[in-house]
Input
Amino acid sequence: MQIDFAPRTRIIQAPGAIEQLGSLVAEFSVQRVLLVSDVGVVSAGHSQLACDSLAAVGIEALVFSDVQENPTTEDVDKGVAVARDFQPQLLVGLGGGSSMDCAKGINFVYSCGGRMEDYWGTGKATSDLLPMIAVPTTAGTGSETQSFALISTADSHLKMACGDKRASCRIALLDPQLTLTQPAQVTALTGIDAIAHALETCVTTRRNPISTIFSHQAWLLLAANFPSVLTNGECLESRAAMQLGACLAGIAIENSMLGAAHSLANPLTAEYGIVHGQAVALMLPHVIRFNGFECRAQYQELLQATSAVDSRLPAGDEEALAAFVEQLIEQAGLQRKLSDCGVEQQRLGELAVEADKQWTVQFNPRKVTVDQLRELYELAF
Output
């Protein structure tokens, strides 16, 4: 067993916490901040709240919002061009995982030069990066507590995991009030993604006793509160629990990585444009059952630990867990079959080859071949 646990991100959570942004940035003694966001967050007024807080302490802010879902190298290049003109001293990623990942990507290239592709892998930064603060407006990716940026190539849409410990955000500012403006569909998609993070991290080959603590606590918060935010999106307590759960799952990912469900999901997004949360939802129950062959004990431990705290959560083995996840997916109104999402059965073999190239497949607890990846696609079809 090898453990190297070094928390690099200060976590602050409170309703209205966005108002603290200016005073927190002032602690870094900077004058110019590039705020990376997207048009939806700008339209919701959150970017203006951030700028107002920065202006109140005399800090100049520039908003870059030309970020699309699943940010590409083109998005990063546009942001770097803005940064080179503005010359920020600190970056703020305000939004969902796309905004936070794009901010990290901009930081890599702006601080170290080269192209985004140069940072594919781990530890590729050649110098210190600018300090970053993450302000998530969703409860999904957990990017605020990870040192990785997921950036797709503009031509092939291949997702590159670009990680370096120096890319970790200094502060994760969690304001559950910012999540109240999410459309119901975004709440569903990001919530399922966060749940997948908790479930995959608790069984990967790189899990350890510390990461498992975060996986279990994230699962408890997410699974217990996801139904509530689906039916009552105004419940701030449930929103806060989801936001914290996603954040803790991000810490688990940082220490244990992910598995086959995400490896299978990525080609669906790249080839068919299926939104990431929906792609994960299609594959997660099948991967849980597949992994149960190797890690039934880990699933049972998870369910025993959480069902003892909250009786609404399932007890049993991988079948009980998979059935419960399927129930959540159905309640979220997401598709459960590849055929309903426009995927062609004759391309499943091709998709399996692409899934086998994904970085996270190597951390799946049960070794999985290309043929088995195709079988999992067939089950989901």
Q: What stands out?
A: The longest strand covers residues 90-95.
